[in-house]
Amino acid sequence: MEPVIGLAVGRGTGPELAAVFERVLARINDIYDVGIQLTRSERLYHSYSSLKADTGIEQTRELTREDADHYAEFCRTQAALGVPAVFRTAINAQSLYLVRRRLQAVKIDLITAPDTSLLLVRDAAQGFYTGENTHVPGALVRTMTFSREITEKIIAFAVRRARQEWPDGGADEIVMAYKFHLLDGALDEWVAQSAARHGVAIRLCQPDTVNRNLIERGPRPRTLIIAGNEWADIMHVILLDRFGSERQENCCTENVYLHPALHGLAEYQTVHGSADDLEGKDTVNPVATVRAAAMLAERHAGCAGAVRMMERGLETLRLQGIGTPDLGGRHSTTAVVDALLDALEPEGRPILAGDS
Q1: What is the arithmetic mean of pLDDT over 106-121?
Q2: How far apart are CA 281 and CA 350, in angstroms?
Q3: Which residues sit opposite 85 in a β-bridge?
Q4: Which alpha helices (H) appear in 81-200, and where do they start and end?
Q5: Is residue 355 over pLDDT 50?
Q6: How far apart are CA 163 and CA 186, in angstroms?
Q7: How many Å apart are CA 5 and CA 36, to the nearest integer?
Q8: Which domains does the chain have, with CATH numbers?
Q9: Are 225 and 205 in contact (CB under 8 A)?
Q10: Which of 28, 36, 138, 280 has the smallest count of CB within 10 Å of its CB?
């Protein structure tokens, strides 16, 4: 049976990056001959900039809800059809987090350094980011929820994922970064009960405590951090830079939906946003998108070694000085992708400086 991958596209540079994704996935498909098929959402979802361009507050709220409703239904439909994963370009965050709350999402990032592996599992299903807005004269009231059920699901997923990542014993340390002092002791109780159920030790810490410990001693060799987005969204780019030596613009990330109806549907995205200011200029950095294509192909379409192949191709481009302006290069998006497609080889010979 041919593997099927979903595709959802937002405004800004979304259509350009979707085209990059399709080209790269087609090249991987040719190399591995697995017959990957794409199923694309028919809606072009808004970015924040496209929403603000011609709309007022009420229309923004309406379009935000329409995008969320449509994308949630697209994900439900794909999961019901047995599609294992979706690639999505950036869309308006408010719409996205409405979906993440409904479908109970977590975001997963593995950040590696020579002596450290840090697994960050971000709680995208509850808290401030997933709140609902109520407008009253002169004010906006945002209401949010934390629940025992969702907290348990997120901890269970994170512990399971850590044991998959480190099968010889799991994480050396599990930390939860939440502003738990604001939650009447409820989160403390839920975490303690969940830790006991899973037979692990979990340290529930204030965000500033997590930051101080990371600054003073760094993470343990195998560290699992489960975090509310109130901390993780801000800190992700810092963790990438400090412990992964990587730029946000080059990175992709995985989301998993924990709602039973989604059957663990995975969603891959670029870490960078919609970059509306680069729309139509053919200068958007494609690295995160091509990495997502390789990750999807390897994990969900049977293309073993696709991620390694992609990294070899990107290293070839780096040695040849081929890159978009944000990386200090002078090449267009199209030129970078053209060169990358030529460089992709399933086994590949050793890459040498000066190769052309």
Answers
A1: 93
A2: 34
A3: 266
A4: 93-103, 148-165, 186-198
A5: no
A6: 27
A7: 7
A8: 1-104+259-356 (3.40.50), 106-247 (3.40.718.10)
A9: no
A10: 138
